[in-house]
Amino acid sequence: MRSWIFSLALVCAAGVHVQAQQASMYTRGVAAFDAHRYAEAVPLLAQADKQAPGATDALLYEGKALANLERWKEADEVLGQYAVQHPDSADALYMLGYVLNREDKPAESLKTYTKAAQLSTPKSDDLKIVATDYVLLNDYPDAIKWMRQAVEFDPKNEQAWYGLGRCYYAQSSFADAEQAFRYALKLDPKDLLAQINLALTLEMRNEPVKADHEYRSAVALADADPHTDQWPYLDYATFLLDQAKASEAIPLLEKAVAIAPQCAECHGKLGRALEATGKYEAAVTELEKAVALDPKNAQLHYALGHAYQSAGMTEKARKELAVTAKMYATKDGSGPK
Length: 337
Hints:
Serine Threonine Protein Phosphatase 5, Tetratricopeptide repeat, mainly alpha, elongated
């Protein structure tokens, strides 16, 4: 009898130990998630659900952790599994809708957001993603509708204001775009994307003095950002080239090339600027790099041919322009613009 009781006690103790392990795995996973240690959280939460399928929110947290790691396909699978187990979880559906958007599956994302909205009122950020789904579907009227709804839900949602500006810009509604970008910058004066897009918008509105001012502000923000890309410098330099201010464009394009040495457009426009200021050999060097990086770009071949001519390299110019003519004839029968 004592032996039987002792064995039963061992079995019970083992069961309690397993339950404690399961609880510990889940608790540790959630703690890692809350501390933003997402890579650490994923295996802990996966193991917690494996030990007790569906007993906790481990899959939900795992899916969110995967989303934060931008492991979209895995997040899709995990959140989809959780949503099947918990069809009334609006939280899971909203997160799944976001993940599907990032996977470039806008139609599926919209269906998922519709299900989520039937369970719980969406937030401003949710409506912002719905709007971007419509952008991906090239439906800008609906994108504007939902982005406007997002800023109405939360007038301080700076990213929604920026998104609204981008939607208006894509529709050539430049006055509305300017207003939206200015509001975004009022909320976050250091938003480089909003700043550069405001400059682009003013350029499109044919207000070069105002555009120049905003481009300068964008470059100042870029100079202060160690993680900036080439675009603030390239966009401003392109504007200056169009304004026949090649000498001012050169230092900006040199920065762009330093940041993105594999950017064919950066080398190409630097070559154009150098040629315009009489630095023909340097222009040829930059345009040769541009063509090497993007050999199928007829405009770059044409620019290189023109630079060869300016540098007195007649035979190279003849060959390059012949290549250009062949490329345009093959493409659509038109010449360089």
